[in-house]
Specification:
Layout: H1 2-10, H2 34-42
């Protein structure tokens, strides 16, 4: 599974293997726990905006 995710985020497939295209072209993948995302949203911060 880890290998699949690494290849997916790197765009290392000849054809996109999943129906969700929102992961295409992500340069710097990161993990954010649901609670942390909710806390930031309450502060008016959208953590997924590109800096």
């Amino acid at each position: 599974m880890v290998e699949f995710l690494i290849k997916l985020l790197a765009g290392d497939f000849p054809e996109w293997p999943i129906s969700d295209t929102s992961l295409m072209g992500i340069q710097n993948a990161r993990f954010l726990h649901d609670r942390q995302e909710e806390r930031l949203a309450e502060e008016g911060i959208y953590p997924w905006d590109e800096d």
